[in-house]
Amino acid sequence: MHATQIYIASQTVRELIVVDPPYSLLSTIFAIIGLLALIGGFFVLSFLKVGFARPLQIFAWLIPILIASPFLIVALVTGATTRITVSADTGTLSARKTILSVPVRSKEYPLAEVRMVSVGVGNVCRFLYVSLEGKQAEDLTGCTDRTGYGEAANAMNAFLEASRH
Asked: Do 44 and 98 reside in the same domain of the chain?
């Protein structure tokens, strides 16, 4: 259920947590391909006893890195998780993106400035964005083909409405 959709991970009277999970299988496949290219390339170069004395030899050692890099980058990008927390206790809506549990982006909005959370539609994808009082709307999640965006937006808007009363 959670592998292909954004979902509500936790909901209490004081806090709501929505998670946009990583594409675990896709990320794993790309990571394996990238690591096999990297390790396999280094193994072949070691087996052929390619040294580091000449510029062409140094370039030969860079080839496995050049081949593996795109696969490893895609593995990292598809392995990203976005966690959106709406908290009445702190009075904030926060969106934190992590890759392999390492924070890479964090945004925080005071609940007083948040009008509503909506689902945006791109050419072939959907995303969550927050409409702010007197400011331009901002993305909360990346643009994906996941399901569950409508349910997540409805839950966050119901939480925002309840916390205003």
From this structure: no
pTM above 0.85, yes or no: no
Domain boundary among 61, 77, 93: 77
pLDDT digits (tens, 9 = 90+) for 53-86: 888 888 999 999 999 999 999 999 889 999 999 9
**Which residue segment(s) compose the domain that 111 sits in?**
7-22+80-164
* pLDDT confidence of residue 1: 45
Write the DSSP string, 23-76.
-HHHHHHHHHHHHHHHHHHHHHHHHTT--SSSHHHHHHHHHHHHHHHHHHHHHH
Report residue 140 CA to chain centroid gap: 10
15 in Cβ contact with 85 (< 8 Å): yes
Q: How many CA atoms lie within 13 A of 75 on its CB side?
A: 14
